[in-house]
Design a protein that fits this description.
Shape: globular
Number of helices: 0
Order of helices and strands: EEEEEEEEEEEEEEEEEEEEEEEEEEEEEE
Largest sheet: 4 strands, antiparallel
Mean pLDDT: 85
Length: 352
């Protein structure tokens, strides 16, 4: 039995790196990781030691390629450095294939299997996974790519107005536009997932069902935040509770813009259940038709959790939302239950 063990160790400073692959050293150590209780034999593994703090990793089990982002700390160990490196290591050949400098303030890397997208400012580049070379570039902030269909999606950048609400589907072989669709990104993206092999569900100012091959689908729009919000911030959430932009979600932008006043999404064989700051709704999964909705008073619903048990939908409303990465008071904390078939309220209790 072979076990891969990745250990984060700081052995050298970032200055020890060079653009030449043979100047970058990755150490490999055999280690005993445990014991097989049935055979009393040792479970051995490999430890790969990199010359600086490991910031992020991505392992493609099909190719055996390990992508490592190295980002060191300041001298007082309190702050992350802005500059670092991206390395691609071949676990099968046990050798470093390439390394690339990166400024984490202005750029980031996303990887979907063997598809590598490197975004710098307002441009995205497809990287050759074997060499790290840029194959093509687009003025588009690509946020997701499907390696099976070889299609990426992201928002077009306009030089005069910045990023638009025009979502584009791009051919990942050459960066050419396949389809376009208007999709409001002002409040960011709260979630993204597949409902079948080719249909994406994007949670952004509502729900949007999109066929990734042609961009067709339905839209359910609802209020998930508030503009020009000036009330007192209650809590500063350490570690950015929503998570820094990683390519899966689009972060909300704008001064005094409250966002993430939404629930999780529940999907069964026919219907979708979803709550926002405006209303709780039951929606036909295939057509987007609203079967029923329960409307909330203004400044009442916020970030929430919903779940189904028997014939009822339960809702726990947290009483907060986010401005940027900061948590703040928004709405009222409450617990409620609704009839799954009709949307009729069974009870609702606020929490002081």
């Amino acid at each position: 039995m072979k076990t891969l063990c990745l250990t984060i160790l700081i052995l050298f400073s970032i200055q020890s790196f060079s653009q030449k692959n043979n100047d970058v050293k990755v150490l490999i150590n055999e280690k005993v990781l445990g014991k097989n209780l049935l055979t009393s034999s040792e479970i051995n593994g490999l430890e790969y030691v990199f010359p600086n703090r490991i910031h992020k990793t991505y392992l493609d089990t099909t190719s055996g390629f390990l992508t490592v982002q190295l980002r060191g700390l300041s001298k007082n160990d309190k702050w992350l450095k802005n500059k670092g490196y991206i390395l691609l290591y071949d676990l099968n050949e046990k050798k470093l294939k390439w390394n690339k400098k990166v400024n984490f303030q202005t750029s980031y890397l996303q990887q979907f299997n063997n598809t590598m997208i490197f975004t710098v400012a307002n441009k995205s580049y497809l990287l050759d996974i074997n060499t790290g070379n840029e194959l093509w570039e687009v003025k588009n902030n690509i946020v997701f790519a499907d390696p099976d269909y070889n299609i990426g999606i992201g928002y077009r950048f306009n030089g005069s107005t910045g990023y638009s609400n025009k979502l584009q589907g791009l051919d990942m072989k050459n960066g050419k536009i396949i389809w376009e669709k208007e999709l409001n990104s002002e409040y960011g993206w709260n979630d993204l997932f597949y409902t079948n092999d080719s249909t994406l569900m994007i949670v952004a100012a509502g729900l949007h069902s999109i066929n990734i091959k042609n961009g067709k689908g339905w839209d359910y729009e609802t209020i998930t935040g508030k503009k020009d919000y000036t009330e007192t911030i209650a809590t500063n959430v350490a570690g950015a509770a929503l998570g820094i932009l990683t390519g899966t979600f689009v972060t909300a932008t704008g001064h005094n813009l409250v966002h993430d006043a939404v629930s999780n999404v529940i999907i069964d064989s026919l219907y979708i259940y979803f709550s926002s700051a405006e209303q709780l709704a039951k929606i036909n999964k295939n057509s987007g038709e609203v079967i029923w909705k329960y409307s909330f008073p203004k400044k009442f619903a916020s970030k929430s959790t919903i779940f189904v048990e028997d014939s009822l939908i339960y809702m726990i409303n947290n009483g907060y939302a986010f401005m940027g990465y900061r948590e703040l008071n928004f709405g009222k904390p409450f617990i409620a239950a609704f009839d799954k078939e009709t949307g009729k309220q069974k009870y609702l209790s606020t929490i002081n």
